[in-house]
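User: Fold this; tokens only.

Assistant: Input:
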Amino acid sequence: MIQLIHKMTLEFYDVPQLFVAADRLGVNYLCVLYKQDTEYHYLGVQLSELKLQSYLAGQLDLRMAYTSPEQENTLFEVVVANKKIQVKTALTQEDITDEMLPAPGFYHSPADAIDANATDTMELSIPVADRGFLADMAQRMGWIASTIKQGISKVAVL
């Protein structure tokens, strides 16, 4: 199985509905959730950087990315389980059912994107009674401000 590395989540509702991942060679995979049981099953398509940027700019219908891939043999079942993202099975157009595909007319809205490099300041109000505990936990865990900031940037507020 090919191991993928998460790059960005584009749609989130309880779990990532749509995300971008890449393999060790830097090939992008656009993955849309189609089934969940004990694992999360995504329909993945390999995309060139140019096609990915076209989607992110709101110029490409999500369904078209799957029904008209750039090359043949670039559709895959991607499984997320045990904190791993893996390409499980190569798929053909005949393997794809309508239930697996996103609805037509879905475009990414660049205005909805979250800038991972944003430098907004966040103020946390911690009760005085808990400050010692938090400081002790941060010291024991080896947390530094950048670690906490990284964790905060991955939190989605809905």
